[in-house]
C-alpha cells in the first residue's frame, strides 16, 4: 500500500488498468481434490495468483503441549514459493508468513467444528505458487474448500476477499499495481450463509462511508465466490451435477 495518490490507476472511462469496473472481481477458478496424498485439497487461481492447499487430519496433536483438551487446533502454514514473485522469496518462515498463517488459522477456527476433535490437530498447508496481491484471501478461500473436501465438519464455508481504495475510488479486489500504489486495502473473511465476519484487517485509511461501500463490495463478492466454491465441490462429489 504505497498511498501514491498521483499514480493513475483509473482511466477516464472509469475503468481500471486491467479493464475492470470498480466492483468487479478478477477471474477465479477452483479445483477440488488435486493432491492425491492429502485428505482434502484445492487449487485456486485468482487473477494471476495461484494457491494450492492440502489438508491432513484430524490427527493426534504433537508436540503434546499444543493439545487442547476440549478441541482441535488448526496448524496452518502459509508459504510463498521462492519462485512466486519476480524477486525470489527467501525460503522459510518470515514475519509476514507467520502473521498470515495466524490470521488464517483464527479465521478457519470460526467455521471448523473444532470441539468435535479434542486433543487433535488439523494440518492446513497453503502454498502460494504465483503471487499478485490478495494471496491471503486466495489461500483462506481455497483452504475452506480443501477442509470441506477433507470431510471436516464445518458450520459454514468461508470466503476471503478484499476491497480497497485507489485514486480516491473504492474498488473491489486490488491487483498488484493497485495494491502497490493504492491508498487502502480491506481484506475480510466472510461466512457466506450467516454473513458473519471471521476476520478483518485494514491497511491505509477509509472514511466511514468508504468503509461501508468497501464492505458492500466484499459481501457481494463473497456470495459470488461462494457459488464457485460450491460448484467446484459439487463437480467432484456429484459428478458435475449442480
Ligand atoms: O498477498 P497479500 O495481498 O495478501 O499480502 P501483502 O503482504 O499485501 O502482499 C501483496 C503482494 O505483494 C503479494 O501478493 C505479492 O505479490 C507481493 N509480495 C512480494 O512480491 N514479495 C513479498 N515478500 C511479499 C509480497
Structural notes for this entry:
With 242 residues, the protein is α+β, with helices and mostly antiparallel strands. The chain has one domain (28-237): Ribosomal Protein S5, domain 2, CATH 3.30.230.70. The chain has four helices and ten strands; from the N terminus they run ββββαβαββαβββα. It has helices spanning 95-109, 135-149, 176-181, 208-237; strands at 28-32, 40-46, 49-60, 73-80, 120-130, 159-166, 169-172, 184-190, 197-200, 203-204. The strands form two sheets. Strands 1-2-3-5-4 form a five-stranded mixed sheet. The longest helix is centred in the last third of the chain and has 30 residues, at 208-237. The chain is globular. The N and C termini lie far apart (39 Å). The model has no long low-confidence stretch (mean pLDDT 95). Residues 85, 89, 96, 131-136, 176, 179 line the site of cytidine-5'-diphosphate.
Strand content: 25-35%
Q: Name the strands of the widest sheet in spatial order.
A: 1-2-3-5-4
- Shape, per Cα inertia axes: globular
Largest sheet: 5 strands, mixed
CATH architecture: 2-Layer Sandwich
CATH topology annotation = Ribosomal Protein S5, domain 2
What is the gyration radius calculated from CA atoms? 18 Å
- The CATH class assignment is Alpha Beta
Helices and strands, in order, run as: EEEEHEHEEHEEEH
Q: What ranges have pLDDT less than 50 throughout 5 or more consecutive residues?
A: none
Q: Compute the number of helices.
A: 4
How far is the N terminus from the C terminus?
39 Å
List each distinct ligand once.
cytidine-5'-diphosphate
The counted number of beta strands is 10
Q: Name the helicity range.
A: 25-40%
Number of domains: 1
How would you classify the helix and strand content by structural class? alpha+beta
Mean pLDDT across residues = 95
Amino acid at each position: 500500500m504505497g498511498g501514491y495518490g498521483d499514480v493513475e490507476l483509473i482511466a477516464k472511462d472509469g475503468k481500471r488498468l486491467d479493464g475492470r469496473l470498480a466492483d468487479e472481481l478478477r477471474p477465479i477458478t477452483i479445483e477440488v481434490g488435486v493432491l492425491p496424498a492429502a485428505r482434502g485439497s484445492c487449487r485456486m487461481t485468482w487473477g494471476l495468483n495461484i494457491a494450492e492447499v492440502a489438508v491432513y487430519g484430524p490427527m493426534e496433536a504433537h508436540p503434546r503441549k499444543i493439545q487442547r483438551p476440549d478441541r482441535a487446533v488448526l496448524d496452518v502454514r502459509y508459504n510463498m514459493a521462492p519462485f512466486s514473485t519476480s524477486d525470489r522469496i527467501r525460503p522459510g518462515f518470515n514475519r509476514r508468513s507467520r502473521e498470515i498463517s495466524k490470521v488464517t488459522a483464527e479465521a478457519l477456527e470460526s467455521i471448523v467444528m473444532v470441539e468435535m476433535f479434542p486433543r487433535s490437530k488439523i494440518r492446513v498447508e497453503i502454498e502460494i505458487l504465483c503471487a499478485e496481491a490478495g494471496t491471503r484471501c486466495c489461500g483462506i478461500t481455497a483452504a475452506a474448500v480443501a477442509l470441506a473436501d477433507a470431510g471436516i465438519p464445518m458450520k459454514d464455508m468461508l470466503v476471503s476477499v478484499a476491497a480497497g481504495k485507489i485514486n480516491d475510488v473504492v474498488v473491489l479486489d486490488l491487483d498488484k499495481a493497485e495494491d502497490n500504489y493504492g491508498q487502502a486495502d480491506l481484506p475480510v473473511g466472510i461466512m457466506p450463509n450467516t454473513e458473519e465476519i471471521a476476520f478483518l484487517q485494514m491497511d491505509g485509511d477509509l472514511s466511514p462511508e468508504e468503509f461501508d461501500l468497501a464492505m458492500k463490495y466484499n459481501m457481494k463478492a463473497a456470495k459470488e465466490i461462494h457459488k464457485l466454491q460450491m460448484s467446484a465441490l459439487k463437480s467432484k462429489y456429484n459428478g458435475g451435477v449442480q
